[in-house]
């Protein structure tokens, strides 16, 4: 018995056509919203460039390096977005975003500089009376709708997030046979990477603020908290159970990605350090194991045991929810630290030079030369002159600002610095 494919019924054909019409309506609506929002965005960028960047340059209120530290590549961003808007208004979304994505380095430069821009802006507002008056006058213009300069500087970051959502909706409602489908798909990937960069930079800045806050809470400067690669996890009060059965004493604990820090409060009668803590112990988490002694049931409180290479620590809390949160945080932090160390060891083993013959070395050299030639041929030489000038000037201003600022003298090895000058016990 054989089966032959039956032709599509009128009902099924009508449903497919209706689905296509829905996709086309959604695509048209998304395209219209994108064009309208792009027009507003370009108008806002033009206002910032005209009433702040250009007038500040003409008046000479701020030095050139300070202006570039605040506004970075926003002038070049305005130029490439004007080109993008022209493509969008003509309905060429694929070509427009394909060209736009070749200049995303301008956005990356702006994103990496945004925290410096906010810091320099705040310093100049406090330092320069002329700039403070100029800023207030320009912000009062009706074109800005009572927006502050601090808010206007966030526009490119916000626009990248909007692009990600617009492009996803546009791609989902574009057929695979459409010539723009591949271009839009590549644009979604490129824009998503820039959006992820924004989130990573924001997380890194927030972590830096947390580390600085903890550093200020500790008495003295001997215990170095601001160490490259260190992440703040959590903090809180826990009771330490002594080995000889004496009374458990509450201590303040700070959990980071690589250490657990134990501190006690300073004397409230101290004239300057009454609200600070004194570091007592620094426990490295590299070789730590954590176990829950009790607190598995719904009974009140719990106890967890931490075993280090040279010490053992019992931590207790009367709040079972709190002790369970600490247990989960410790297990997750220690697991991530050990997994990173395992990956590093494996990479070191893979980096060992294998034994090769002369013929293999010659063939590998030829293949490398071939790949280098292909890579050079793929480079795009058509770069805007304005964009290159903006990027180079931004890098020079960031280098000059770095020379003026006193760098944090963070040691290469945070543990060696702690053990050399700190009163904490490094285990």
From TrEMBL:
Residues 362-371, 417-427 have a biased composition (Polar residues). One of its GO terms (molecular function) is guanyl-nucleotide exchange factor activity. Residues 1-23, 355-427 are annotated as: Disordered. Signal peptide: none annotated. Gene3D superfamilies: Dbl homology (DH) domain (1.20.900.10), Pleckstrin-homology domain (PH domain)/Phosphotyrosine-binding domain (PTB) (2.30.29.30). Residues 1-12 have a biased composition (Low complexity). CDD domains: RhoGEF. One of its GO terms (biological process) is positive regulation of cell migration. Residues 26-201 form the DH domain. This is Rho guanine nucleotide exchange factor (GEF) 39. InterPro entries: ARHGEF39 (IPR042987), DBL_dom_sf (IPR035899), DH_dom (IPR000219), PH-like_dom_sf (IPR011993), PH_domain (IPR001849). It comes from the Eukaryota. GO terms for cellular component: plasma membrane. Coiled coil: none annotated. PROSITE patterns: DH_2.
């Amino acid at each position: 018995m054989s089966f032959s494919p039956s032709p599509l019924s009128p009902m099924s054909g009508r449903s497919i056509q209706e689905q296509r019409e829905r996709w086309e309506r959604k695509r048209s609506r998304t395209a219209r919203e994108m064009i309208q929002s792009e027009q507003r965005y370009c108008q806002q960028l033009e206002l910032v460039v005209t009433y702040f960047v250009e007038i500040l340059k003409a008046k000479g209120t701020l030095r050139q390096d300070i202006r570039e530290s605040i506004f970075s590549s926003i002038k070049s961003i305005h130029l490439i977005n004007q080109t993008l808007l022209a493509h969008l208004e003509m309905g060429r979304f694929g070509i427009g975003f394909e060209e736009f994505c070749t200049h995303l380095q301008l956005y990356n430069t702006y994103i990496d500089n945004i925290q410096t821009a906010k810091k320099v802006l705040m310093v100049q507002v406090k330092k320069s009376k002329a700039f403070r008056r100029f800023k207030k006058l320009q912000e009062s213009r009706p074109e800005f709708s009572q927006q502050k300069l601090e808010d206007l500087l966030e526009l490119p970051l916000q626009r990248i997030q909007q692009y990600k959502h617009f492009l996803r909706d546009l791609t989902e409602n574009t057929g695979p046979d459409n010539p723009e489908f591949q271009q839009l798909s590549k644009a979604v990937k490129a824009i998503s990477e820039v959006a992820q960069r924004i989130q990573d930079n924001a997380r890194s800045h927030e972590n830096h603020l947390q580390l600085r806050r903890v550093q200020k809470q500790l008495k003295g400067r001997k215990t170095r908290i601001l160490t490259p690669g260190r992440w703040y996890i959590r903090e809180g009060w826990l009771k330490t159970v002594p080995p000889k059965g004496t009374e458990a004493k509450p201590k303040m604990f700070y959990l980071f990605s690589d250490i657990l820090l134990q501190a006690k409060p300073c004397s409230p009668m101290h004239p300057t350090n009454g609200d600070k803590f004194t570091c007592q112990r620094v426990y490295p988490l590299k070789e730590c194991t954590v176990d829950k002694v009790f607190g598995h049931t719904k009974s009140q409180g719990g106890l967890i045991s931490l075993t280090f290479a040279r010490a053992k620590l019992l931590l207790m809390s009367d709040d079972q929810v709190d002790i369970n949160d600490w247990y989960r945080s410790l297990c997750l932090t220690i697991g991530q630290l050990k997994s990173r160390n395992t990956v590093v060891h494996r990479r070191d083993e893979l980096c060992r030079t294998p034994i090769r013959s002369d013929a293999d070395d010659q063939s590998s050299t030829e293949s490398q030369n071939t790949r280098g030639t292909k890579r050079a041929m793929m480079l795009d030489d058509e770069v805007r002159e304005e964009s290159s000038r903006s990027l180079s000037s931004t890098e020079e201003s960031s280098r000059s600002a770095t020379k003026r600022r006193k760098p944090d003298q963070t040691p290469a090895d945070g543990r060696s610095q702690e053990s050399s000058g700190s009163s904490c016990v490094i285990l």
